[in-house]
Amino acid sequence: MTEIDIEAVIAAQTALIAALDAGDIGAIEETTGALSRLLLVVRASGVVAGTSPDRVGHALRQTDAARARVNYLADRTRQRLDRLAERRGVRCPTTYNSAGRFAVFSR
């Protein structure tokens, strides 16, 4: 991995976060694909001496930021679906299990 690789990954992550914040589905799909292709290049090149640990750390923090947004959006979507189900008279409570993931219980 070179500085150019890591900078391209950070730029793609920044674009993905912006798309997630904007709720732009087309941009989310586009930036997810671009990031996926970049990560394939990074995986193939491996870790190269001279890659700045600060930039790699920044890329990892960007990953966490994107993950948090995806989890938040998934949670909000689940809540909306639950409210729609309740309006139809179907009770479908959701709760988090010990792993911090949704456990859905239908009744």
What would you say this structure looks like, in words?
With 107 residues, the chain is mainly α. It is 71% helix and 6% strand. Strands 1-2 form a two-stranded antiparallel ribbon. A hairpin with a 5-residue loop joins strand 1 (94-96) and strand 2 (102-104). The chain is elongated, with a radius of gyration of 18 Å. The mean pLDDT is 83.
Features:
two-stranded antiparallel ribbon, about 5% strand, mainly alpha, about 110 residues, about 70% helix, single chain, 3 helices, elongated
SSE arrangement:
Layout: H1 3-22, H2 25-45, H3 53-87, E1 94-96, E2 102-104
Antiparallel strand pairs: 1-2
Summarize the structure.
The protein has 107 residues and is mainly α. It contains 3 helices and 2 strands. Strands 1-2 form a two-stranded antiparallel ribbon.
Query: Low-confidence parts, pLDDT < 50 over ≥5 residues?
Result: none
Please list the strands of the largest sheet in the order they lie side by side: 1-2
Helix content: over 70%
- Per DSSP, the total helix count is 3
Secondary-structure element order, N to C: HHHEE
Structural class: mainly alpha
Mean pLDDT: 83
Please give the number of β-strands.
2
C-alpha Rg, in Å?
A: 18 Å
Shape: elongated
How far the N terminus sits from the C terminus, by CA atoms, comes to 51 Å
Strand content: 5-15%
Largest sheet data: 2 strands, antiparallel
